[in-house]
Give the backbone structure.
Amino acid sequence: MLRSELTKAMKTAMLAKEELALGTIRMILAKLKDLDIAERPSGNQDGISDDKILSMLQGMIKQRRESIELYKKGNRPDLVDQETAEIVVIERFLPQQMDEDAIKDAVEKAVADTGAASIKDMGKVMGALKKSYAGQMDFSKAGGMVKAALN
């Protein structure tokens, strides 16, 4: 489903001559193709699942946010603006993001469901969250909340 949405968006950006959107969507599709190729040796000829695509998109946003911080330190407002614009394009393909209260509730539920008792169980809780909320949750925020809940 996401693949067809990305392809449609690329065609729309081409027709509308939206250079930034077109370039960003092409970048997304190139990364998707790389991941699909990497998945083939494990017997998956159809490509990665929508959940993995959502995780990939979140990773791309995370990379851009890190770059923005570096560009700000380097006094490069032009690159900050470009990265910010790319984030906006990528976010169009993600489901509605959870707010902080919703993340907190999901963390509490995941801790209870997995029976996590100590910080050693953090991986189990994060795995459950990633399985249930791929593309909807900022896992860097969730990680801090999980750590706090398990301490």
DSSP finds seven helices and no strands in the chain.
